[in-house]
Amino acid sequence: MGEKMRIYKHGGEIRHPSYDRPRVYQRTRMFPGLGVTRSLGDLLGHHIGVSSEPDVVVHDIRGEDLFLTIGTESVWSALQAEEISEILRENDALN
Asked: 27, 11 in Cβ contact below 8 A?
């Protein structure tokens, strides 16, 4: 089930305010206005479908893999994988 559908089934909705990025709200209310769909310990968010269950991706390590990057939503919303790779290369993190 997708993030949006999980939120909707629990009484929440994702709105796209013109002044900010998408946020999760309780339907018919102006709160909580969360910028994430996954959170630890947010009781109000939990009631409208915000989950503490992580997204897990299984990847078999191959010879051509140079590094592993783990990041939070705030990292992935600000940077693309290619940008992170470039940052690592520029900082000589791979040598």
From this structure: yes
